Amino acid sequence: MTTVASVAGLSGNPLTDLSDMLAYPFMVNAFRAGAAVAVVAGVVGWFMVLRRQSFAGHTIAVVGFPGAAGAAVLGLAAADGYVAFCVIAALAIAAVPPATRRAFSEESAVTGTVQAVLLGLGYLFVTLYHGFVSSVDALLFGSMLGITTGQVAELAVVAVCGVAAVAVLWRPLLLASVVPDLAEVRGVPVRLLSTAFLVLLGLAAAAASQITGSLLVFALLVMPAATAQRLTARPLAGVVASAAIGLVVTWAGLAVAYYSPYPIGFWITTLAFAAYLAAHLVALVRERRVRGGRSLRRPLVVA
Asked: Which of 81, 157, 189, 250 has its CA 20 to 30 A from that of 206?
């Protein structure tokens, strides 16, 4: 990225700058892949935040690192390792008993245990790996500029399948996420649905890891979703906003990084955090106005 930044410069004309940037095939692939990942991460991430499974999402994202490192040791594609380990971690977390108070603490313990063991395994694979150190850095922090056209197509398929799965499971998943007890009474297979969602989360994390790396994937999963939930309480609007925010910060991060010496992951996470802060401030102002309006409508008490 530093090499590109050293030869690129802003012309002052946005259209010219955009044309110059998209003249490189690797930038076109980065924008396409970023769009696919941002949409599926935003959609699945919205439900992850709603279900309060951010810790599980973080663990699933992190354990993609040993999967990709192990694939590198075996001479396989890193994407295969991401998918395998993220899905295995999701199934391991899903095996925990239902989320009663006791089971919630068990889930946290199991999740933390899975994360610690697999991270240790990842460091073992790194030690056994005899390739370039920069390749290991790419597993941790991503390598958007090295994405091929074939990988773009694979990510697009994952994104379409992930969004389609959420659309099919929309009503029962939403009910089970908000009021699981009522969902069970209505015959919704809550446990099976939770497992299916965790697998979807694993696939989304695996896809995003190819863009941002294992350590930064959580930014695309949680920050756009948290930002959207601060802006609106309506489920459909929130999911759409989450995907849109993820898309904007990813594309903006790519564009800014192209003209700067700093890495893409830094810009994506920084812009996502800035969007969350802005939404949080908007929500605070909105709540203060609502409280002020209520206080003005209070009846006057005469002593």
From this structure: 189
